[in-house]
C-alpha cells in the first residue's frame, strides 16, 4: 500500500519550540485540534493556494481509488483550498506536494477548521474522518483507477432563532468520469443528508445492500446551536456532527453500488436540492425504533424460514451479539472520555494553585521552579484535553458508527425475511388460484375459467418474480456481509493505528515537559 | 532522672529506616532499623503508634531544655486506622496522601521521615526518650508519661484572639503573616493535587473495564471474525498499557510530590504552633508587665519577680525560635528540592518507558495484516 510510506508530517510538529498549539491536521500526522486562535505559529505562513483549482489540498490519505470492477477503496475528508484564505494568520501548515511512486500527486494540508462565524477558544476540532487504506496494488494495476475524495467542512448557521439551521460545505474532488467537473462543492443541511438516506433505503435494486445510516438527530444539541449559545459545548456538538456527516458520506461513496447511484451523485453535485421531508422517521431514536419494531413484528409472526443452509440464521445471531458487545464497548470508552475531561479540569486547578504558590514563595529559585511547574501542569492539561478528543473521535465515534451499521445490517436481514414472506404469500395465493381454477373446471363455467386462467398466469409470474427477488436479496446480502466484515477489520485496524499514533505523540510531549522541568528543579538551592 | 546532659551516643538520622509493617487486627507494628553514629552495628526494634505518640509527648514535655517552647517540633502523622474501620473516603479526608499507596507504604515513609527529623534536630536528638525509643526492648509507649503541656492551636475564640495579637518584633510578625498565607496556599495545592491523583486512579479503572470488555470479542466462526477478534485483543493490550501508565504515574505522584506536599503542610502547621506558643508567652509577658506596674506596694516585688522571669523566658524562646526558623527555611527548601527532583525523574522515566511501549505496539499494529 503506497500511502503509508509517503506520509511526511511537516517537521515543525516535532519541534521543541512549539507551544502545544496545533492546528487541525489530517489524521495521522496531526496532533490535536487547537483552534485557530490567531496566536498562531508565525514560523510557517500559510502558503497561498495554488491557482490551479484541481490541485486541491486534499490529504494524500484521502486518495480514494475507485476500481471499475472491484469494490473501491476509501475516501478521506479534506479541505478545499478556499479555507486557507480564512485562516491565513492561524496555525496553518505548509502545503506539501510529494509525488508518490505512481506519479500521483499526494497533497497534505490542513483540514476542517471551523468557519469564522464560530469564534470559540477551545480546542475542539478533531482530526476527522476515516482513512481507509488504498486498494491492493495488484488490483490497481489491473483496473482503471479513479479517485474521489469527500470533505464536509465549514459549518455555518443560517437564519435566526428557532428557525435557524446549520449548513455544511460538501466538497468533492474526483477523477470519476461520471461527474462533470473534477472539483466542486455544494452546501447542504442536515435534513438533506437524512433525505439522501431515505431515498436510498427504498430503492428496489439496492435491496440487501448495507446502506450506511446517517448520524442521529439531536434536539438538545441543535437547540443550543439555534439559540445562539456560542459556548464550548455547542461548538463541540457542531464539530461532532460535521465529522459524523463526513464519515457518513465517505461510507456511502465507499460502496460501489451507491457510488453509481444517481441520487448520491445529485447530492454531491447539484446546487440546490429540494427540501427533504419526512425525515422525522429517520431521527436517531426513530431509526432504531423502526428497526426494532420491524424485528418485533417479524418475531411475532414466528417466521421460520426453511433455510437450505443456516448461514443466514447463524450470521444474524452473530450480528446481534456483536451489536450488544459494541454497545458495551462504546459505553466504556465514553466513560473514559468523561474521566479525561475531569482530569483536564483538575489539572488546570492544580496548575493555578501552584502558580499562586510560586508567586508567594520567598526563596527565588523555589519560586521560579514552582512557576515552571505550573506551566508544566498547564501543558499536561492541554495534552489531556487533546487525548480526550482522540479517545472520542477515534474510538467512541468508531464504535457508535458500528453499532448503527450493525443495526443497518440487521435491517437487511429483515428485508430478506420480508422478501421471503412475500414469496410465500404469493405462492399461497397462487395455490388458491389453482384450486379456484380446478373448481371451475369441475363446475364447467368456461367464461369464468378464462379469467381464472389469466389470474393463474399473472400469479405464476408474480411467484417467479418474488422468488427471483428473494434469491437476489439473499445473494446480495451474503456478498454485502462479507464485504462489510472485511471493511470492518480494515476500519478498526486503521483507527487503532491512529489512536496509537496519538498516544505516542502525547507521550513524547509528556517526556519533553519533564525533561524541561528537571533542570529547573535541580537548580533550587 | 531523664537528664539530657548524658553524652549517650546518638542515633544516626540517615540510618533510620522503617523496613516492615505487620497488621494484627487493628494494630499496626512497625519494624525500625537504625545505627548509632558511633558504630556500624544495626539495631532493630518493633514499635506501634502508641510508642511514636509517647515519643512525641516526651519530647514536648522535657523539663530542663531552655527555650523548648521555641522549638519547631517535627510533626507526627496522625494515628492510622486500618481499612477495616475506615472507608477510603474517610481515610482520604483524614490523612490525604498518606492514605494512598499500597499497604501503608507512604504512611511508613512519613513516619520514617519524622524519626529522621527528630534524630537530626540539634536539641531533640539528645533526648533520652529518643534513644530509648531506638534501643529499648520493651515498648516504651506502655508507660504513659506526662502529656505535653503546650497549648495546641484550637478554634476557641480566646485562642483566635491571641493568634492575631500584634507582635513586638518585625521579624516575627512577618514570619507569622507569611506562615498563615503560605499554609493556606499549600493546603489548597495539596487538595488539588490529590484530586488529580484520584482522577488518574479512576482513569486506570475505566481503562481496565474497557480492556477487559474487549476480550469478550472472541468469535472464531470465519476468517474475518478471527481477524476482528485479534484486532480487538490488540486494542485491549494497548488500553492495558494506558492503564498501567496511569497507575505508575499516580504512584509516582503519591510517593514524591504527594508526600512532599503533605510534609510541607504539616511542618508549616508545626511552625505555626511554635509561633503561637511564643505569641501566648508574649501575651503573658505583657500581662505580667501590666500587673507589675499596677501592683500594690505589698505585691510589687512578687510581680516584678514574675515579670523578670517571664521576660527571661520570652527572650530565650525568641532566640531559639529565630534559629529554628532559619534552620526551617534552609531545610524546607532542600527537602522540597529533593522531592521535586525525585518526582520529575520518576515521571520522566515512566513517560519514557510508556513511550517505548507504545512505539512497540504501533510497529506491531502497522504490520498487522488484515
Automatic annotation (TrEMBL), chain A:
It is a peripheral membrane protein. SUPFAM superfamilies: BAR/IMD domain-like, PX domain. Keywords: Acetylation, Cell projection, Endosome, Lipid-binding, Membrane, Phosphoprotein, Protein transport, Transport. Its main location: other. Residues 1-54, 101-122 are annotated as: Disordered. The keyword Membrane applies. This is Sorting nexin-2. Residues 146-275 form the PX domain. The keyword Acetylation applies. It comes from the Eukaryota. It is found in: Cell projection, Lamellipodium; Early endosome membrane. It comes from Astyanax mexicanus. Involved in several stages of intracellular trafficking. Interacts with membranes containing phosphatidylinositol 3-phosphate (PtdIns(3P)) or phosphatidylinositol 3,5-bisphosphate (PtdIns(3,5)P2). Acts in part as component of the retromer membrane-deforming SNX-BAR subcomplex. The SNX-BAR retromer mediates retrograde transport of cargo proteins from endosomes to the trans-Golgi network (TGN) and is involved in endosome-to-plasma membrane transport for cargo protein recycling. PANTHER family: SORTING NEXIN, SORTING NEXIN-1. Residues 113-122 have a biased composition (Polar residues). One of its GO terms (cellular component) is lamellipodium. InterPro entries: AH/BAR_dom_sf, PX_dom, PX_dom_sf, Sorting_nexin_N, Vps5_C. Belongs to the sorting nexin family.
Automatic annotation (TrEMBL), chain B:
Keywords: Protein transport, Transport. The keyword Nucleotide-binding does not apply. The keyword Cell membrane does not apply. Residues 1-141 form the PX domain. InterPro entries: AH/BAR_dom_sf, PX_dom, PX_dom_sf. It holds the Pfam family PX. GO terms for biological process: protein transport. One of its GO terms (molecular function) is phosphatidylinositol binding. PANTHER family: SORTING NEXIN FAMILY MEMBER, SORTING NEXIN-5-LIKE. Belongs to the sorting nexin family. This is Sorting nexin-5-like. It comes from Astyanax mexicanus.
Amino acid at each position: 500500500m503506497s500511502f503509508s510510506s509517503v506520509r511526511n508530517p511537516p517537521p515543525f510538529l516535532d519541534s521543541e519550540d512549539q507551544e502545544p498549539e496545533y492546528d487541525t491536521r489530517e489524521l495521522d500526522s496531526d496532533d490535536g485540534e487547537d483552534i485557530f486562535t490567531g496566536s498562531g505559529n508565525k514560523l510557517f505562513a500559510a502558503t497561498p493556494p495554488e491557482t490551479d483549482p484541481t490541485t486541491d489540498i486534499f490529504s494524500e490519505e484521502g486518495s480514494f481509488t475507485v476500481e471499475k470492477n472491484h469494490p473501491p477503496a476509501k475516501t478521506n475528508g479534506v479541505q478545499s483550498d478556499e479555507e486557507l484564505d480564512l485562516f491565513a494568520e492561524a496555525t496553518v501548515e505548509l502545503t506539501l506536494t510529494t509525488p508518490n511512486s505512481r506519479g500521483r500527486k499526494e497533497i497534505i494540508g490542513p483540514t476542517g477548521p471551523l468557519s469564522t462565524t464560530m469564534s470559540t477558544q477551545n480546542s475542539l476540532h478533531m482530526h476527522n474522518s476515516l482513512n481507509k487504506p488504498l486498494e491492493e496494488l495488484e488490483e490497481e494495476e489491473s483496473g482503471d483507477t479513479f479517485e474521489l475524495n469527500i470533505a464536509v467542512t465549514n459549518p455555518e448557521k443560517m437564519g435566526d432563532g428557532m428557525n435557524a439551521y446549520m449548513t455544511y460545505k460538501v466538497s468533492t474532488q474526483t477523477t470519476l468520469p461520471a461527474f462533470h467537473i473534477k472539483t466542486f462543492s455544494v452546501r447542504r443541511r442536515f435534513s438533506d443528508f437524512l433525505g439522501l438516506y431515505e431515498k436510498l433505503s427504498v430503492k428496489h435494486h439496492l435491496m440487501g445492500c448495507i446502506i450506511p445510516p446517517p448520524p442521529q438527530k439531536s434536539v438538545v444539541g441543535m437547540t443550543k446551536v439555534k439559540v445562539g449559545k456560542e459556548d464550548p459545548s455547542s461548538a463541540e456538538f457542531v464539530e461532532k456532527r460535521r465529522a459524523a456527516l463526513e464519515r457518513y458520506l465517505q461510507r456511502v461513496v465507499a460502496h460501489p453500488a451507491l457510488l453509481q447511484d444517481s441520487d448520491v451523485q445529485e447530492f454531491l453535485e447539484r446546487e440546490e436540492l429540494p427540501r427533504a421531508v419526512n425525515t422525522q422517521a429517520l431521527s436517531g431514536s426513530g431509526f432504531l425504533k423502526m428497526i426494532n419494531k420491524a424485528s418485533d413484528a417479524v418475531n411475532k409472526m414466528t417466521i421460520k424460514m426453511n433455510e437450505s443452509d443456516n448461514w443466514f440464521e447463524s450470521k444474524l445471531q452473530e450480528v446481534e451479539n456483536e451489536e450488544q458487545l459494541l454497545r458495551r464497548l462504546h459505553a466504556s470508552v465514553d466513560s473514559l472520555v468523561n474521566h479525561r475531561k475531569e482530569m483536564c479540569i483538575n489539572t488546570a486547578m492544580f496548575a493555578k494553585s501552584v502558580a499562586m504558590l510560586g508567586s508567594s514563595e520567598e526563596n527565588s529559585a523555589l519560586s521560579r521552579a514552582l512557576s515552571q511547574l505550573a506551566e508544566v501542569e498547564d501543558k499536561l492539561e492541554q495534552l489531556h484535553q487533546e487525548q480526550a478528543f482522540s479517545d472520542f473521535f477515534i474510538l467512541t465515534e468508531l464504535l457508535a458508527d458500528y453499532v448503527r451499521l450493525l443495526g443497518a445490517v440487521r435491517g437487511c436481514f429483515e428485508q430478506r425475511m420480508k422478501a421471503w414472506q412475500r414469496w410465500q404469500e404469493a405462492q399461497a395465493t397462487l395455490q388458491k388460484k389453482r384450486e379456484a381454477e380446478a373448481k371451475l373446471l369441475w363446475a364447467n363455467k368456461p367464461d369464468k375459467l378464462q379469467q381464472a386462467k389469466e389470474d393463474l398466469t399473472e400469479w405464476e409470474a408474480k411467484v417467479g418474480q418474488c422468488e427471483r427477488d428473494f434469491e437476489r436479496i439473499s445473494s446480495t446480502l451474503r456478498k454485502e456481509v462479507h464485504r462489510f466484515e472485511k471493511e470492518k477489520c480494515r476500519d478498526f485496524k486503521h483507527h487503532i493505528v491512529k489512536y496509537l499514533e496519538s498516544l505516542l505523540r502525547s507521550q513524547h510531549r509528556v517526556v519533553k515537559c519533564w525533561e524541561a522541568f528537571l533542570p529547573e528543579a535541580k537548580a533550587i538551592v | 532522672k531523664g537528664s539530657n546532659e548524658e553524652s549517650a551516643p546518638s542515633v544516626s538520622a540517615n540510618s533510620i529506616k522503617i523496613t516492615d509493617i505487620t497488621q494484627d487486627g487493628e494494630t499496626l507494628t512497625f519494624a525500625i532499623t537504625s545505627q548509632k553514629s558511633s558504630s556500624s552495628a544495626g539495631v532493630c526494634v518493633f514499635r506501634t503508634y502508641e510508642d511514636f505518640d509517647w515519643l512525641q509527648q516526651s519530647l514536648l514535655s522535657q523539663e530542663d531544655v531552655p527555650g523548648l517552647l521555641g522549638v519547631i517540633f517535627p510533626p507526627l502523622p496522625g494515628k492510622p486506622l486500618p481499612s477495616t474501620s475506615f472507608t477510603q473516603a474517610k481515610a482520604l479526608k483524614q490523612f490525604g496522601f498518606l492514605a494512598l499507596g499500597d499497604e501503608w507504604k507512604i504512611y511508613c515513609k512519613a513516619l520514617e521521615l519524622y524519626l529522621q527529623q527528630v534524630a537530626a534536630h540539634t536539641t531533640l536528638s539528645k533526648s533520652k526518650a529518643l534513644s530509648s525509643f531506638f534501643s529499648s526492648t520493651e515498648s516504651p509507649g506502655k508507660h504513659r508519661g506526662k502529656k505535653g503541656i503546650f497549648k495546641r492551636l484550637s478554634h476557641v475564640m480566646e485562642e483566635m484572639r491571641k493568634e492575631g495579637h500584634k507582635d513586638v518584633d518585625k521579624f516575627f510578625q512577618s514570619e507569622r503573616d507569611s506562615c498563615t498565607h503560605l499554609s493556606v496556599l499549600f493546603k489548597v495545592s495539596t487538595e488539588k493535587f490529590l484530586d488529580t491523583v484520584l482522577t488518574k486512579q479512576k482513569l486506570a479503572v475505566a481503562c481496565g473495564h474497557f480492556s477487559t470488555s474487549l476480550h469478550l470479542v472472541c468469535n472464531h466462526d470465519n476468517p474475518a471474525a478471527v481477524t476482528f477478534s485479534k484486532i480487538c485483543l490488540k486494542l485491549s493490550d494497548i488500553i492495558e498499557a494506558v492503564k498501567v501508565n496511569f497507575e505508575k504515574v499516580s504512584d509516582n505522584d503519591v510517593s514524591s510530590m504527594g508526600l512532599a506536599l503533605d510534609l510541607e503542610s504539616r511542618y508549616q502547621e508545626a511552625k505555626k504552633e511554635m509561633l503561637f506558643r511564643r505569641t501566648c508567652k508574649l501575651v503573658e509577658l505583657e500581662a505580667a508587665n501590666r500587673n507589675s506596674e499596677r501592683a500594690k506596694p505589698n505585691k510589687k516585688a512578687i510581680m516584678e519577680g514574675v515579670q523578670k522571669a517571664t521576660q527571661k523566658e520570652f527572650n530565650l524562646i525568641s532566640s531559639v525560635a529565630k534559629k529554628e526558623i532559619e534552620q526551617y527555611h534552609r531545610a524546607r527548601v532542600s527537602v522540597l528540592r529533593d522531592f521535586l527532583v525525585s518526582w520529575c525523574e520518576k515521571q520522566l522515566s515512566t513517560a519514557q518507558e510508556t513511550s517505548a511501549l507504545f512505539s512497540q505496539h504501533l510497529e506491531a499494529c502497522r504490520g498487522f495484516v488484515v
